[in-house]
Amino acid sequence: MTSPTDSLLTARCQQPPRMMRAPHSPTHGTQEPIMNQRLINWLEIPVVDMNRAVGFYEQVFDIRLRRETMSQVDMAVFPHPDPGGALVAGEGYRPSNYYGTVPYLHAPELDALLERATRAGGKTVFGPLRLPGEIGRIAHITDSEGNRIGLHEPVAG
């Protein structure tokens, strides 16, 4: 019988953080393989109602998003530059609760964040679950647009 952790996370996700090394990664003219530089470069979370989504994320994460438009795509950019990300609305973007990638956002106070998500109109759909070892806890919420968003609370210290 598998545990909930086995069905949601790969074996690598259950290990302590470490640098991923791919021995035969293309370098594209650099000395260091591309995947050793950074795995995530930019994150886009699709939304239908940008004002509603901005209100949700600003309330849940206690942040201010910067609004802008790029190539006819409405964006609300998260205030974290490296790697960065944004809520996006426009042609070709559709929220999904069941299909696609599940981004995990940093949640140093997971219980408080889950409470704020509920107050903002979201739902906790999984967890919190304590991961083995010194990995921390995770949970999944559904945001105001219907996206499944993962939350990760690292072990304090």
Automatic annotation (TrEMBL):
Taxonomic superkingdom: Bacteria
VOC domain segment(s): 39-154
Key word Lyase present: yes
Location of the region described as Disordered in the Swiss-Prot/TrEMBL record: 1-31
SUPFAM superfamilies: Glyoxalase/Bleomycin resistance protein/Dihydroxybiphenyl dioxygenase
CDD domains for this protein: SgaA_N_like
GO MF entry, a single one: lyase activity
InterPro entries linked to this entry: Anthracycline_SecMetBiosynth, Glyas_Bleomycin-R_OHBP_Dase, Glyas_Fos-R_dOase_dom, VOC_core
Family annotation (PROSITE patterns): VOC
Keywords: Lyase
Official protein name in the record: Glyoxalase, related to lactoylglutathione lyase (COG3324)
Organism: Cupriavidus taiwanensis (strain DSM 17343 / BCRC 17206 / CCUG 44338 / CIP 107171 / LMG 19424 / R1) (Ralstonia taiwanensis (strain LMG 19424))
Taxonomic path: Bacteria, Pseudomonadati, Pseudomonadota, Betaproteobacteria, Burkholderiales
